Prior knowledge:
Blueprint: E1 8-14, H1 17-24, H2 28-31, E2 43-47, E3 50-58, H3 63-80, E4 92-95, H4 101-113
Antiparallel strand pairs: 1-3, 1-4, 2-3
Amino acid sequence: MRLDPNAKLFIGLKIDSKLREALAQATPGDRRYFDDPNSPYLRVISMSEEQWIGKLFDGGTPPSEIDDIGRNVISILNRIAPGARHSPSLMRIFSVDPTPVLQAVQRDRSSSNHD
């Protein structure tokens, strides 16, 4: 095992049906916070069959800054989806595989064909 100082991490919440509905009803002004896949605010990222919304940040970030980033995610979600649940206790941190989704799917299919 080794540490990768260039790795990206993601902090966010799983998108449930209520949050999905609230995001679909967001105003055009609020959609700018999450619609762009390269948004500096929030990003929607897939993990298996689930979708998560949150923010990317650099590996090696101090814990106090991670708390600030988490509060920022919750603050933006409260603005764009006020009717959904945004509890900090539901937030999770994941490492991010930088492989584009299409390449990852093709790689997974290729490796399963060799089994």
